[in-house]
Design goal:
Layout (H helix, E strand, L loop, with lengths): L11 H18 L7 H7 L5 H17 L8 H9 L4 H11 L21 H12 L7 H21 L3
Length: 161
């Protein structure tokens, strides 16, 4: 008698929805969390501060949920150091480099270069955050996301790792 399979069939759209919903809901649940003063100032530069805060918190949740997301982002630390850019400047540049549409891994979109669930998940999280607003508001979410990524890279660099 054959062993029953321990695998289940999963629809990718359903799995993605559960992943996105879980990350989004967790970030929304933390909107009232106190953040460092420097972080609050960075997020205040966004056109939509609440959306930027969701981008920032989405990255915080990624770091907690996915061990792979905690891998050092070497290129980001190198870019901070080599170009003498600070977190504010580099996070704004990266947000501007990201396409407003769904990025393909081959596009060179910065969200695909950050360890974690990938650029598509982040694109859909940003769309959820901006709801029915103009697509350009995605830049606010991206700014918040990259502020957290750059802060982490800067902290790792100052710690000598």
């Amino acid at each position: 008698m054959a062993e029953p399979s321990t695998l289940i069939s999963v629809r990718s759209d359903v799995a993605a929805s559960l992943l996105i919903d879980g990350l989004f809901d967790e970030a929304v649940g933390r909107l009232g969390a106190e953040l460092p003063v420097a972080t609050e100032a960075r997020l205040a530069r966004a056109e939509d501060t609440a959306v930027a805060r969701l981008g920032y918190l989405a990255r915080v949740v990624e770091l907690e949920r996915f061990p792979v997301a905690r891998a050092p982002v070497t290129w980001l630390g190198e870019r901070l150091a080599a170009q003498a850019q600070d977190v504010d400047a580099l996070s704004a540049v990266l947000a501007a480099e990201e396409p407003l549409g769904k990025p393909a891994p081959s596009d060179g979109a910065p969200t695909w270069s950050i360890p974690g669930p990938g650029g598509h998940v982040r694109h859909f999280l940003a769309l959820r955050a901006v709801a029915d607003g103009p697509a350009e508001r995605k830049r606010s979410w991206l700014l918040g996301f990259f502020v957290r990524c750059c802060e982490d890279a800067a902290d790792r660099g100052s710690a000598g790792s």
